[in-house]
Design a protein that fits this description.
about 190 residues, alpha/beta, five-stranded parallel β-sheet, about 60% helix
């Protein structure tokens, strides 16, 4: 199963991806984790990314895609993978589709975790308080959510137009949300 998890910050993507990894027996690939690992390893792409970040710039889509291509070439992804945090915009979604077609691993399904913005603000504010993070105040969270919605709406439509999108209610216990995801992807798993 090749799966993309979509959802706003605080929607539970990372938590559910960890559970899905064990259930589906495929790796969970977070582009943030991948970027940090490449930088720490001192790989050519990691060194390039480190220099860009040191200037305060964003790492380009081309560098992220290169890191992702290298990661998807490893043997543990032969049975599939779960992408978390990528694609975040239409250009990334298109580039990912081209990459997956080139390596013969087309995307099976995109799951969007749907959570009301005000609940997301509460979740992130609660998490920030527990972790002692002052940067996750309600105003900054709302701004990040607005940017996410603006950039990600085309990605959701991209997968919807391909017939690969399923929207799952991301509100409830971890087990409830996990069960909804499993039920949503079951038809795709049966076909694959």
């Amino acid at each position: 199963m090749r799966l993309v998890l979509l959802g706003a910050p605080g929607s539970g993507k990372g938590t559910q991806a960890t559970r899905l990894k064990d259930y589906l027996q495929v790796p969970h690939i977070s582009t943030g984790d991948l970027l940090r690992a490449e930088v720490a390893a001192g790989s050519p792409l990691g060194l390039e990314a480190k220099a860009i970040m040191a200037r305060g710039d964003l790492v380009s889509d081309a560098i992220l895609l290169g890191m992702l291509e290298e990661r998807l070439s490893r043997a543990d992804t032969a049975g599939g993978f779960i992408l978390d945090g990528y694609p975040r915009n239409l250009a990334q979604a298109s580039a990912l589709g081209a990459l997956l077609a080139r390596i013969g691993q087309p995307m099976d399904c995109a799951v969007q975790l749907d959570v009301d913005n005000e609940l997301l603000v509460e979740r992130i504010a609660g998490r920030a308080k527990a972790e002692g993070r002052a940067d996750d105040n309600p105003e900054s969270v709302r701004k990040r959510l607005a940017i996410y919605a603006q950039q990600t709406a085309p990605v959701v439509d991209y997968y919807r137009q391909q017939g690969k999108l399923t929207v799952v209610d991301g509100v409830g216990t971890l087990d409830d949300v996990f069960k909804r995801i499993i039920e949503a992807i079951a038809p795709v798993r049966e076909v694959g």
